[in-house]
């Protein structure tokens, strides 16, 4: 059974960098044709795909976030990370990591609340 778990600070100050880690168990992040994604949901809004890193290490980012986002991985720890720079209160959201296989997001983390506030 694949499990994903987000971790990171719940409060970030404006203009700082938000950093989250997703730890994957029960499956390798380098295995098969999987894409490991970051998705967020601001309060009262829908889900927003932020970006992903593939099983081979290729990275993809939403055009609206491309200038601020970085996704990387540590294969020795079976983790992938999100860094979002120059955050504002509009980046307040529940952040999820998820695995995509084909057209489906088949496994999700439980989500972690991140609030941007001074």
One letter per element, helices H and strands E, the order comes to EEEEEEEEEEE
Distance linking N and C termini: 39 Å
Main sheet characteristics: 7 strands, mixed
Compute the gyration radius: what is it? 13 Å
**Large-scale geometry:** globular
- Level of helix content? under 10%
Low-confidence stretches: none
Task: Tell me the fraction of residues in β-strands, as a range.
Answer: over 45%
- What would the average pLDDT be, to the nearest integer? 96
Number of DSSP E strands = 11
What's the tally of helices? 0
Could you say which structural class the secondary elements and strand pairing correspond to?
A: mainly beta
Key structural traits:
single chain, 118 residues, mainly beta, seven-stranded mixed β-sheet, four-stranded antiparallel β-sheet, 11 strands, globular
Please provide a brief summary of the model:
This protein is mostly beta strands. It is built from no helices and eleven strands. The protein has strands at residues 3-7, 11-12, 18-25, 34-41, 48-54, 59-61, 69-74, 79-84, 93-101, 104-108, 112-116.
Describe the structure.
By secondary structure, the protein is an all-beta fold. The protein is 0% helix and 54% strand. The protein is built from no helices and eleven strands. Strands 2, 4, 5, 6, 9, 10 and 11 form a seven-stranded mixed sheet that branches. The relative contact order is 0.32.
Q: Secondary-structure map with pairings?
A:
Elements: E1 3-7, E2 11-12, E3 18-25, E4 34-41, E5 48-54, E6 59-61, E7 69-74, E8 79-84, E9 93-101, E10 104-108, E11 112-116
Parallel strand pairs: 2-11
Antiparallel strand pairs: 1-3, 3-8, 4-5, 4-9, 5-6, 7-8, 9-10, 9-11
